[in-house]
Structure formats: structure tokens, C-alpha cells
Amino acid sequence: MPLLPIVLSNINNFSLNRWDNGYAIIDYLEPIETESFSETQVKELAKVAHAKMLEKIKELDAEVAELNRK
Predict the structure, then answer these.
(1) Which residues are 26's β-sheet partners?
(2) 29 touches 53 (CB < 8 A)
């Protein structure tokens, strides 16, 4: 089965006691094919997924920062 990473922008500045907390973005990445990974390569697959997710989170954080400035 392909792995479908789902990411969320940074929400460290959110306060549950406020009505308007700003913005957060949830997105998903292209599926990561797992056929080329064996059962003994789970850590390698996790590293690939993690790297792709971190890259996307940085993009989302920049987008949220721009939205919060408006």
C-alpha cells in the first residue's frame, strides 16, 4: 500500500481561549510508493516520508505567516 502523508502547519501560537487564533493549514502529499521498500527497510521509508513532510510543513508555515500578516 502507498503511504499518504498528511501534514499540518505549525499551531504553536494558538490559544484555545481566543475566538480568532489565526490560520492553520492541513494538506496531504503525493502518495509514497512502498513497493521498493522491504519489511527490513521501515526506518528508511520513515526517513523519506519525514523529509518530504518537513519540507511541506515549512511551505505551509510560510503561507500561514503570510496570511496572519494580512
Answers:
(1) 8
(2) yes
